[in-house]
Amino acid sequence: MSFSGQVKDELYEVIGNGRHCRLAELAALVTMTDDDMESKAGKKIEKLSGLLDLNPYDNETKKALKIVKDIEGYTVDRIIVEKNCCKQAYIRGAFIAGGSVTNPEKGYHLEIVCNSIKKAELLVDIIKDFDIEAKIVIRKKSYVCYIKDGSMIVDLLNVMGAHSSLMDMENVRILKDVRNTVNRKVNCETANLNKTVSAAVKQIEDIKYIDKVKGLKYLPDNLRSLALLRMEEPEMSLIDLGQCLSPPLGKSGVNHRLRKISEIANELRRNI
Hints:
Helix content is about 65%, strand content about 10%. By secondary structure, the protein is an alpha+beta fold. It has two domains: about 5-175, Homing endonucleases (Endonuclease I-creI, Roll); about 185-270, no CATH class. The strands form two sheets. The chain has a four-stranded antiparallel beta sheet with strand order 3-4-6-5. The protein has a two-stranded antiparallel ribbon with strand order 1-2. A hairpin with an 8-residue loop joins strand 3 (about 100) and strand 4. Helix 2 (about 20-30) runs antiparallel to helix 3, helix 7 packs antiparallel against helix 8 (about 165-215) and helix 8 (about 165-215) crosses helix 11. The longest helix is centred in the last third of the chain and has 51 residues, at about 165-215. The protein is rod-shaped. The chain starts with a helix and ends with a helix.
């Protein structure tokens, strides 16, 4: 089953406690669902209609659901979503009717397709009441409300009541964050290691050049002892090199002496 299907199955079982919440969800479902009563949305319409003892398509019910008609078709009066619980129910109904959400393993994208700009704008406004930013894009003849931020999608699942799906998505997000953190650290450590290796190779090249041209006795005692140690231990860190010297030397001191060796090698190259 797709992640969208999982979310809709969960939301199908969520029923608002108050009659007003059930009316709000039914209003969203009726105005945003095609005539396919075999769909998940159609079955939820039947379920809520039975609980409310209403025929969802007669004129009296449309009045109760605050459904109004204009040149774009049917929409709902915002009065039906005055309470936060009703807003949650309306979003839930809209998602069951026209929503989908990408498997979080592949990416973060949730959308709800509306067949008129008024429905899309109403839905976006209601979603924004929960500090969740949704945007609208036109796709062929439809108006699509969408969210691409993972944390906001989690928040919307919470608002709709899809708590099990929320936990599944959060687990995926945590694993992805851990993987990304590990990859960043590995990449950083690899870059640092490459930098260290390159520096050590250059140091050894300089030492070998001095030895070839002048001999290591050309170096002062403090530099010669470090040069010999570096030749013996090409992979040793600067800190460990310093600890092997007598007397021991800190990292900055070792680095300073290696720079001096490099300067001497470069000076010899220029003069030959």
